[in-house]
Each structure stands twice: as C-alpha cells, then as structure tokens.
Write a structure and sequence with these properties.
It is a single chain. The chain has about 170 residues and is mainly α. It has two domains: about 100 residues; about 55 residues. It is about 80% helix and about 0% strand. The longest helix is centred in the N-terminal third of the chain and has 32 residues. It starts with 5 loop residues before the first helix and ends in an 11-residue tail after the last helix.
Length: about 170
C-alpha cells in the first residue's frame, strides 16, 4: 500500500509540533524556577551551590545569572513570569494546532517563528554559541519548510467561483 502524499508532510508537522511542545515544557520549567527564586532562601542556596562550581564558563554564567535575577524588583520578576507564560501559551497553541494538522497553525507558526529569527540572530551575533546556532538553524528550517508547504497548498487549491447575487 502506497503512503498518501500527506503522510510525509504530517510527519514533519509532528516533528515541529514536538519541538514547540518541548519549548513549552522548558518555558514552564523556567516560569516555575522564577517563582521559586522569589524565595530568598532558595536564592541563597543557589549562590552557595554556585560557589562550589569549579571556575570556568559555567560558573561565570550561573553566578552572573543569579546576580542579575537577584537584582530584579518584585514587579520585574512578576512581569518576567507573565512573559514566560505568554510565550509558553503561544508555543502550546502552535504545537497543538500543528499536531492537529490545522492550516491556521502553519500560518501562525510561520509568522511567529519568522518574526523571532532576527532577534535570535542578534543574540547569536552578540554572544555566539553552539546551542543558539542550533536553535536559529532549526527555526530557519521550520520557516522555510512551512513557507514551501503553504505556497504549494495555495497553488494547488482551486479558486472558488462566486455566485452571482440575484437582483
């Protein structure tokens, strides 16, 4: 039995959906971490833990992140939490919509992911890293794939005739 032409397309959409849901999971973990870091005792324990790390890039990154976070006001921490949850909600809508093969989800993912690529490139140029480069490459590949799929669907779709209104 020959697989339908939609089967490979759905496989790629599922992979993109899983990627989006993975982002949701990471963002929810970050939001939870932001809530826990409001507690001064947790922040103090993290500073103690960070001091036990050997000197190196990971030590510097952890300490600078903790110093930055501890310097935020309660209002900024709350705003950061809300922004994190908003991104998680957006990625969840994209992921579930793609999993359900919704055309609107393909459009939404294309627009949102494409609009974030310039910021990701800026961050990559400011502080290069393999992880950032992989994320940018994945997002560019997703946008290119979805644009091709949306264009192909637009070309193959037959124009609908309008009915003339009786006057």
């Amino acid at each position: 039995m020959k697989p339908s032409p939609a089967a490979p397309r759905f496989g790629f959409l599922r992979a993109i959906a899983v990627y989006k849901i993975l982002k949701v999971t990471l963002l929810l973990a970050a939001a939870y971490g932001e809530l826990k870091l409001r507690d001064a005792s947790v922040l103090a324990r993290l500073f103690t833990w960070a001091s036990t790390l050997r000197s190196g890039p990971e030590h510097k990154a952890v300490v600078s992140l903790l110093v930055w976070f501890s310097g935020l006001s309660a209002a900024r921490v709350q705003a950061l939490g809300w922004v994190t949850l908003a991104y998680a909600a957006l990625f969840a809508v994209e992921g579930v919509g793609l999993w359900m093969r919704r055309r609107w989800a393909e459009w939404l993912t294309t627009v949102i992911t494409g609009s974030l690529i310039p910021f990701e490139l800026w961050r990559l140029a400011a502080a290069p890293g393999a992880g950032k480069a992989i994320v940018v490459a994945l997002n560019v590949a997703i946008v290119v794939y979805l644009v091709r799929q949306l264009r192909a669907a637009t070309v193959t779709r037959k124009p609908q005739r309008r009915r003339k209104r009786a006057t």
